[in-house]
Amino acid sequence: MSLKKIKVHPYLIPKPVAIIGANIEEKANFLTIADLCTTGYKIPRFVISSGKGHYTNKGILENKEFSVTIPSSTLVKEADYVGIKSGKKVDKSKIFDIFYGELKYAPLIKNAPITHSCELVENVDFGDTHYLFIGEIKETYVNEKVMEGRIPDIKKVDAFSYYYDNNYYSVGNVIAQAYKVGKELE
Ligand SMILES: Cc1cc2nc3c(=O)[nH]c(=O)nc-3n(C[C@H](O)[C@H](O)[C@H](O)COP(=O)(O)O)c2cc1C
Prior knowledge:
CATH architecture: Roll
CATH topology: Pnp Oxidase, Chain A
Number of helices: 3
Mean pLDDT: 97
Strand order of the largest sheet: 3-2-6-9-10-5-4
Bound molecules: flavin mononucleotide
């Protein structure tokens, strides 16, 4: 295979789609984020990259709390909507069926397979376009219907990813066993 050097771009494939929630002036607001990752297990955290112009940032910075929800494909329209409309212009508080857990400023989504509440522990500001919010996960709620033994079942969660061709893709099939298939090269 010959490799072509192209313009630098943070290609990450696949990119999960998550919905971030925060309270602003006592109202829930949500936005879509595809630039996110997790770090740590003992102290589990989400790291999200949010453009500085986003309305949701106001709530995250003021209350130091936010939610991270993994939507299933049945929520694709809503997930797209909160990613194209700003809370500065429209009221997005009624788009999802919401509830609050222990964190009173992190609106959680009831009709999603997985929803987490987070406490903002750090905001990394490189001084350019995006904030990097690091949130410690305080609570995780999983729809009982998607649980399979100890963990959520990937097919039942039915999450989707965003791709640079501006389409959403569903999660595919098992191709090999993790922590095992590599041993074939031993
Ligand atoms: C599929 C998708 C992924 C997105 N990913 C990000 C992202 O990772 N970071 C970001 O800052 N904005 C992202 N956006 C844009 C925001 O979700 C969007 O601008 C949103 O309307 C901001 O809402 P707010 O102003 O109410 O906070 C994404 C939008 C879509 C549709």
